[in-house]
Amino acid sequence: MKPENIPVSGPKGPTGDCCGSAHAAHANLPAAAVPAGAAGQLFRIATMDCSAEESDIRRALEPINGIRSLGFQLGARTLRIDASEEAYAPALEAIRRAGFDPQPAASGAAQAGGRGHEGHDHDHSHDSGFGSGTTRLVAALVLAVGAEAVSFFAPDLMPWKIAGMAVAAAAIALAGLDTYKKGLAALLRGKLNINALMSVAVTGAFLIGQWPEAAMVMALYAIAELIEARAVDRARNAIKGLLDMAPEQALMQGEGGAWAVTPVAAVPLQALVRIRPGERVPLDGLVTRGSSAVNQAPITGESIPVDKEAGDAVFAGTINETGEIEIRVTAAAGNTTLARIIHAVEQAQGSRAPTQRFVDRFAAVYTPAVFAIAVAVAVLMPLLAGITWQDSLYKALVLLVIACPCALVISTPVTVVSGLSAAARRGILIKGGTYLEQARLLKAVALDKTGTITEGKPQLVDWRAWGDAGEASLTQLAAGMAARSDHPVSKAIAAGLKAEGAEVRDFKALPGRGTEGVIAGRRLVLGNHRLIHELGLCSTELEAELARHEQQGRTVTLLADEHRVLALFAVADTIKDSSRQAITELKALGVTPVMLTGDNAATARAIAAQAGIEDARGDLLPEAKLDAIREMQRRYGTTGMTGDGINDAPALAQADIGFAMGAAGSDTAMEAADVVIMNDNLQRVAETVRLSQRTHAILWQNISLALGIKSVFLVLAVFGTATMWMAVFADMGASLLVVANGLRLLRRRP
């Protein structure tokens, strides 16, 4: 996937929402690898946390002439600006005036799937660790408690009152310095984000004499943001943890044949790397020596180790469990399958899901509306309800705290990020929140046969002697003939017989028919029905036997001499063990499976019957598959397509959601589809649908929870006795609740 280049004139984001730095569901993800040749300059903006701040920067840059495109990566907190040379200085100045501090970032620093780049410079407006930031907040809380104590024990003594106000001001300064900085910048831009609202509310409360409460509210708000930041980190770390799966060093063979520990970033292509038992594979490669069982769970989600021997592919981040192996490196550190997985998930997290776009639009209206209500309460309540101006101002300040849509805004991205992360852990790469949400709407899914429902490798499934020939001698004859051919069917016969073949002389291939050779002075052929028919060796009984096998989707090869047929060998592409269960699961979810294959109709029907599919369509060229997808969309509605991402590309593009199967290590498959299944397990499609259903349910639970709490306190603030304390607890409590609810998606379910 390529980074999204967003035109400056693109659609604008919300104008009235944005949580503080701790509210960024995308923050602190590892920076994406930057494709070679990417245009423009890359800048890191440490306080660019959410879509509203992205919109602030976009609007600040719109008046600048010479800017060609903007590439935002919220996960990495970076912005790529493609502009003329003279436009960079005014562009950076415009960003600074908007309240942000752009710093040059090394665009090519991503290594080993993200190591060694600027993404590790995790700046926070609110420190998410227990370092100096936490000490400062604890001190602020202690001072706020002191201010409350002074107010309670000596409310009318002026010296104590002055001292209490000083203590409260110190607490506000310690806890709210970052909030005031960002709030002031937002107000100067005409924005009403959480920092601006809290700054106005706390300052107003202090000025009307509620200084103990102002200090406590600011301290509690800052501490709640710290707690929330740590909660959101769980979603971020779900992907950041992928970086730790690939080791930073590899044991590489040097020019003189000596083995030396080398940083993975310095290992060239085609280098030999040795991996001992228990070590992680540092880079993608092909096994050249040794054999072992490799745990591929980080890539495919399957925890059962896979046996590897010479010629097999291994992936960075997987675990070598049993034997020492040597591999020849096939991908550089920044281009391994693991690096592409991380990059794909980062890109997906940078896109906005439909529900998130709805929430952003709603929040853009909600905040100004509540702010207007607060102004009306401050001005009209003394005139209409007969309360004091001080009481009405206090109610208005409580409303300002309630006006922040923090819980609402954060509920969607943290849930979507958790869903995408949970899918990635299972070897499912979903290329954006749109597809994560849309998968639950699938009504039908088209399934390619070869490699999706079946193994994609022909196997010998049945054979029998024809006539009175002995089986022992036949296996040697057939194995000898089959072993000399490179045809997949011949290879399947040789592998299935597991016998030592007889020596063959005068061997030659008969294109489109089979092979011919001489064994012990006897001329033999190993060929198809057409060859046997041309030799005049067919019979009514033989034709019936061939028809029986063909109805089961099998390819029959016959061994014959010059006078008669000696044996029949039935080869078939066998159905995967997981396919039947996958079809059952799809049907249980209300999704209709349809097989689309280029194989003949008889084979399609036979395989479909074994898998439990009622609708099987064979003899389809890529164009016909495309037409079939369109027909399914008209008939069923939202339709998915599974394939290998190459031959099925037109159908994958036409489908509402395209699933690429068995895409580990395949650039083409990862580019072609909307959802990438890293292994060959069709059950992952049903799992994607279930995850989509859970994500949708949690999204609306969070939205309902956030809006419900806001509505209750809005009424209490206007007509009841809600205090600023209650408003802060309600706001931050709701934020923590929706974050915790969204993180439930990270729990691994079977």
CATH architecture label of the domain at 455-574:
3-Layer(aba) Sandwich
Helix content: 40-55%
The low-confidence runs, each spanning 5 or more residues with pLDDT under 50, are 1-38, 107-131
* Global shape: elongated
Largest sheet: 7 strands, mixed
The total count of strands amounts to 26
Structural class based on helices, strands and sheet pairing: alpha+beta
- The CATH topology of the domain at 455-574 comes to Calcium-transporting ATPase, cytoplasmic domain N
Note the beta-strand portion. Answer: 15-25%
Walk across the major sheet and give the strand order. 14-26-25-24-15-22-23
Give the N-to-C terminal Cα separation: 29 Å
Q: What is the CATH domain class of the domain at 455-574?
A: Alpha Beta
CATH superfamily of the domain at 455-574: Calcium-transporting ATPase, cytoplasmic domain N
Residue-averaged pLDDT, rounded? 78
How many helical elements?
A: 24
Structural Rg: 33 Å
